[in-house]
Each structure stands twice: as structure tokens, then as C-alpha cells.
Design brief:
257 residues, alpha/beta, 2-enoyl-CoA Hydratase, Chain A, domain 1, 2 domains, 6-stranded mixed β-sheet, 12 helices, 51% helix, 14% strand, globular
Amino acid sequence: MSDKTVLIQQQGKVQIWTLNRPQRLNALTTEMGVELRQALAAAASDDSVGAVVITGAGRGFCAGADLGRFQAFAQGGDFLERDRFTSLEFPRAFANFPKPIIAAINGPAVGWGFTMPLMCDIRLASSEAVLSCGFVRVGVTPEFGSSHLLPALIGLSRAMELVLTARKVTPEEAQEMGLIKEVCAPDELLPRAVELAAEIAEFPAPATSMAKALLKHGAGASLEQTLAYEIQCFHAALETPEHREAVEKMLAAIKAK
């Protein structure tokens, strides 16, 4: 078995990242965080990558942070290691990733396994998945931008209930809330996520990147701020060769009918 905690595979324009600690339900470690940051940086600058799918090895997506780390911190462990483990550079790397990223939640998704997918642009889940924002259960608080993202996705009242009860959520309920887009059969989850990512990756890359940035900006900006940023991005998109090629392709298709 590979000693890498994140396995990377490429299918066409889609990169698949697999969290690879199946014996611990892919619980987050400092090493996994470092490897994910490296993967984010590499994919951001790689023109062959149009979109990313992230999933888990074995029967789990991610059981949250490795409890052994919490135990070590509680026992007066290495404060430098604690600061590395909780570095803001990690969530910022996800927040600033310019390309589409899809979470394929294949099993239990708890704690960070619940909050990290909120940073993804689209979330799919297996019918065998179970989700829990279980931070208070182990005496800690929500992280990875979830106190902003979760209320934005499902409303403050629902977010408060999920956080304060730390209860389990079925994929069907998560879909009804708007947390996930689709519930898939276990063997269909990853192919469906890759299919969706491949469809998105075929669009002109500058447009998808700027569209993603626009929506994230607009979610936290005033209408006037949004209008100004929208037209700035629209002008930039008009100047890209990908835009011109897409227009020519569509015009040719219309003429051929």
C-alpha cells in the first residue's frame, strides 16, 4: 500500500484525489494536509487539469481529524506541530483554488470530513454515506470556513441545529437541505463525479475559473460591488482565445444545422 496519504490519478482533464488512510477512515493528519496543499498548488498551475474530484479510499470519506493528534495536543504535545496542523494556509488553499472541485462523499464524513466538502463547488454522496458536523462531541468548534459556508448553504437555523446536536445526517436529508447535489449508488458515485467534472472541464478554462471567483465574491458582496466585479471579469473573458474559439465553434455548429 502506498505511503502517500493522498493518491492522485488523472483521467483526461480530470484529476482524482483519493484520501488514503483507509485503516483510519482517512482521518486528517498534518501529512495529509501538506499533500493536499501541494496537490492544490500543482493542479492550479497545470493546464492539463480542468477539474478535480476528491474522494476517500475504502469505506470512508473522512472521519475528521485523527483523534491521536487531539490526544497529543491535550497532553501538552508539540505546540509547533499544533500550529502546523491548524494553519490557516490549509483552508485558504482550498478557498482560493481557481478550478472546479467536486467532492464524491463515499462513506462517513465527520468533522473535517464534513467541512472540507463545503469548500468544494459541488458535492455528491453515496447512498451509504453519513455526514456529521461532530465538533462539539469532542469538545472543539467548527473550522475550515464552515461557520460561514454552512449557514450560507442551508440557513442559520439548520446550521445551528446540525452543529449543536452533532447528529448524523443521511445523504437523502443532506440533499433535501441543499448540502449535496445528488445521491448515487456506491458503485456509481465516482464515475458520476468524474463524468460531471469532465463535462465542466470541457468549457473554456478562463471562463469557468472567473465564474467560480465571481460567485464566491458575489456571495459576500453588495450588489454594487458585484456589478463592478462582474463586468471586470466579463471584459477579461472577452479577451481570451478560449472565448473566441468557443464562439467560432458554436457558430459553425449553428451553420451546419
